[in-house]
């Protein structure tokens, strides 16, 4: 009897490199900037996002790989590539990406802006006499006093260039003697606006054109006034990216707070890992920069256009161009909370699902605020990973402590690029009398959980909020996330166990319902996937739907491959990194992967398992990545309420039907838009906006019918479609 060929599920050829998959994701974001069906200013926004994404990618991911090369670390990754091989492939792909960015900017966006009454002027040669005079006067009055020209000579060494700062490098020659060239530079001050508005052009037909020029162009033109005794031979902007990956030896750090503060200062002066220069830069100038910054040729990006396209996000905010933007969505109230009852009464009626940003984040803030003031509330406990600049939740927690309540807050100091912000908040909370936990040794706390302990007539009751996103009222308007309120005692017991574990190192002997990383989340997910495989092998119902930000865990992917080969239908909705190969014959024929890139950033994590007709549904804070499963405190929680289950399933079904903003992963690793010919267009994000508005309108009508309470007005334009 012939032995069947069993695929090698762990073979590196069956996996995609994580970093290359991320670049592919940023290409999908860039496609939105190239999509001419989108309003023009939305396209500007997406181009800006690709630029800021790339900055972070280099500062963290590329930096980490360079550290590995320096340490002579040669172990291959999930796809069989060494750190050196990864850097080589990343460099080639990143250069291609940047070329497409600037092709989009120069050939598509600039002409479209001009047609719509906004000129971004490239230099003084494009200015009228009036505009040039205005720019020179602006320089003299506003810019010149702020600048610090820095010359380089035997007594003045090459200056330290700050990470991400925009600078102008110049070659100078003394007017009085010799032919020797000298180097100098000046930093473009970040304290001044980069976009300078020039006098408006009024055309014969009465139409107006707004004109802007970038600050560095004005400085470059006026640079002779900074070096009066010199002739300017050449002057060009440049920008560097440094290693910003924090390396903290937590075992050696007696005080984590102090160590992180120390490391944050070093972030400005890490190894240079990327140099951006003007395409037409003087070769002599480039030679100096390359030598002094110790940058290799493959890390130099020659740019055909303005450096650092993140300025386009500032341009997005310019007044007078609202007609070139999407109509903003107003987050709607959740129907379950549109009454006069307080938040605790409403939660007692049954579990409540919130779907952000379609539904407002306000109830989460109100939950903490009400608890802070309620005399019956004894304790509030919360984990904080990223919060907003003026966080109402922080203010409420501080108020609760001042009101004599027991307040425990875990503030994650290692939240990347939010470390400084979180240190400030942690100190403020401590000052108010909160018990603050500064994260755990060797682990990031990424879970989203709030526990309120309240004394009631029938005894102590625990109210819990669990979510997929941060307790950040600002990003809750931009990120799609789910949150659930419950007072189910099983969740309450587990929530107490989580906080006892965080504050006192006590792991519970068993859990009622929560799957917590790094304790048992990996095991739970693998067990669920394998159960679906076994059900398929026995001819039972088997189906997996999973939505997340990233998938790159080898053990999980191998289990998915096995399940696919057993006949399990697997539908994955993965916004960003995906190291799995979809639709590969004999390996993943039953696996489809889609990525949705739209107006909001997809951030919720939802996991569905058919379980032979008794479906299990989970939500939580964890992606299927090694860091989430093994190196972070994460919570994935079951959805038990039938009503909430129905709503969560609807979210998955609509996203699986999306054929406007979805990109489908192909067997070769590329992504393609689905064929919409002859099909009704489904834009999942737009549909959720409309559904939230319709639900709010219907609830208002219901309230009006029975003469109950007041209602927050619906401001979204989308409602018109439902009247």
What is the makeup of the main sheet?
A: 10 strands, mixed
Amino- and carboxy-terminal Cα gap: 68 Å
Helix content bin: 25-40%
**Average pLDDT, to the nearest integer?**
90
* Contiguous uncertain segments of 5+ residues: 248-254, 716-723
* Structure summary, number of beta strands: 27
CATH superfamily of the largest domain: Endonuclease Chain A
Q: List the domain count as a whole number.
A: 4
The number of helices is: 18
CATH class of the largest domain: Alpha Beta
CATH level 3 topology of the largest domain: Endonuclease, Chain A
Radius of gyration: 28 Å
| CATH architecture label of the largest domain | 2-Layer Sandwich
Query: What general outline do the C-alpha atoms trace?
Result: globular
Task: Describe what this molecule looks like in 3D.
- With 723 residues, the protein is α/β, with parallel strands linked by helices.
- It contains 18 helices and 27 strands.
- β19, α15 (554-565) and β20 form a beta-alpha-beta unit.
- The relative contact order is 0.09.
Short description:
With 723 residues, the chain is of the alpha/beta class. It contains 18 helices and 27 strands. Residues 248-254 and 716-723 have low confidence and may be disordered.
Keywords:
27 strands, disordered C terminus, 723 residues, alpha/beta, Endonuclease, Chain A, globular, polyphosphate kinase like, ten-stranded mixed beta sheet, eight-stranded mixed beta sheet, Methane Monooxygenase Hydroxylase, Chain G, domain 1
């Amino acid at each position: 009897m012939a032995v069947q060929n069993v695929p090698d599920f762990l073979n590196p050829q069956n996996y995609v490199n994580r970093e290359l998959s991320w670049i592919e994701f940023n290409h999908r974001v860039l496609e939105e900037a190239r999509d001419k069906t989108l309003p023009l200013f939305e396209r500007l926004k997406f181009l800006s996002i690709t630029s800021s994404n790339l900055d972070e990618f280099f500062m963290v991911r590329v930096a980490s790989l360079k550290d590995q090369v320096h340490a002579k670390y040669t172990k291959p990754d999930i796809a069989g590539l060494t750190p050196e091989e990864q850097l080589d492939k990343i460099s080639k792909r990143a250069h291609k990406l940047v070329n497409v960015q600037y092709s989009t900017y120069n050939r598509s966006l600039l002409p479209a802006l001009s047609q719509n009454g906004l000129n971004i002027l490239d230099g003084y040669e494009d200015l009228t006499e009036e505009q040039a005079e205005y720019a020179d006067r602006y320089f003299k009055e506003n810019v010149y006093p702020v600048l610090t020209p820095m010359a380089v000579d035997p007594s003045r060494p090459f200056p330290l260039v700050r990470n991400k700062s925009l600078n102008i490098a110049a070659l100078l020659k003394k007017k009085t003697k010799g032919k020797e060239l000298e180097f100098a530079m000046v930093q473009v001050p970040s304290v001044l606006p980069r976009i300078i508005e020039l006098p408006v052009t009024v055309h014969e037909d009465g139409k107006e054109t707004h004109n802007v020029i970038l600050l560095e162009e004005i400085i470059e033109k006026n640079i002779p006034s900074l070096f009066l005794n010199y002739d300017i031979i050449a002057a060009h902007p440049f920008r560097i990216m440094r290693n910003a990956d924090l390396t903290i030896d937590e075992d050696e750090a007696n005080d984590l707070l102090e160590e992180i503060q120390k490391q944050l200062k070093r972030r400005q002066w890490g190894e240079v890992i990327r140099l951006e220069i003007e395409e037409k830069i003087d070769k002599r100038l480039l030679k100096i920069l390359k030598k002094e910054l110790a940058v290799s040729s493959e890390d130099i990006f020659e740019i055909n256009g303005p450096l650092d396209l993140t300025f386009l996000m500032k341009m997005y905010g310019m007044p007078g161009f609202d007609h070139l933007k999407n109509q903003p969505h107003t987050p709607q109230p959740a129907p379950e909370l549109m009454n006069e009852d307080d938040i605790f009464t409403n939660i007692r009626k049954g579990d409540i699902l919130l779907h952000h940003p379609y539904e407002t984040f306000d109830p989460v803030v109100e939950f903490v605020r009400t608890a802070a003031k309620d005399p019956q509330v004894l304790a509030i406990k919360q984990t904080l990973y990223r919060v907003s600049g003026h966080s109402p939740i922080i203010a409420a927690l501080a108020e609760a402590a001042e009101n004599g309540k027991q307040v425990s807050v875990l503030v994650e100091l290692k939240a990347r690029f939010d470390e400084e912000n979180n240190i400030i908040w942690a100190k403020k909370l401590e000052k108010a009398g909160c018990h603050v936990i500064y994260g755990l040794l060797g682990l990031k706390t990424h879970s989203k959980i709030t526990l309120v302990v309240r004394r009631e007539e029938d005894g102590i009751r625990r109210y819990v909020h669990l979510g997929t996103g941060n307790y950040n009222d600002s990003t809750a308007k931009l990120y799609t996330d789910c949150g659930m309120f419950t007072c189910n005692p099983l969740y309450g017991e587990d929530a107490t166990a989580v906080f006892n574990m965080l504050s006192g190192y006590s792991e519970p002997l068993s859990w009622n319902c929560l799957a917590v990383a790094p304790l048992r989340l990996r095991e739970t997910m693998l067990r669920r996937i394998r159960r679906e495989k076994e059900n398929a092998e026995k001819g039972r119902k088997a189906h997996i739907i999973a939505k997340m930000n990233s998938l790159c865990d080898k053990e999980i992917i191998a289990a998915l491959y096995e399940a696919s080969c057993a006949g399990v239908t697997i539908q994955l909705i993965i916004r960003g990194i995906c190291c799995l190969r979809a639709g590969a014959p004999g390996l993943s024929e039953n696996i489809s992967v889609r990525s949705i890139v739209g107006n909001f950033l997809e951030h919720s994590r939802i996991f569905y398992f058919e379980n032979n007709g008794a479906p299990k549904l989970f939500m939580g804070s964890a992606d299927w990545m090694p860091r989430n499963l093994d190196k972070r405190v994460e919570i994935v929680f079951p959805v038990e309420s039938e009503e909430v289950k129905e709503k969560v399933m609807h979210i998955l079904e609509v996203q699986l039907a999306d054929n406007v903003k979805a990109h489908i992963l192909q067997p070769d690793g590329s992504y393609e838009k689905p064929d919409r010919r002859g099909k009704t267009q489904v834009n999942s994000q737009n549909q959720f906006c409309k559904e939230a508005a319709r639900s709010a309108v219907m609830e208002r009508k219901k309230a009006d019918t029975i003469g109950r309470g007041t209602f927050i007005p619906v401001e979204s334009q989308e409602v018109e479609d439902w009247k």
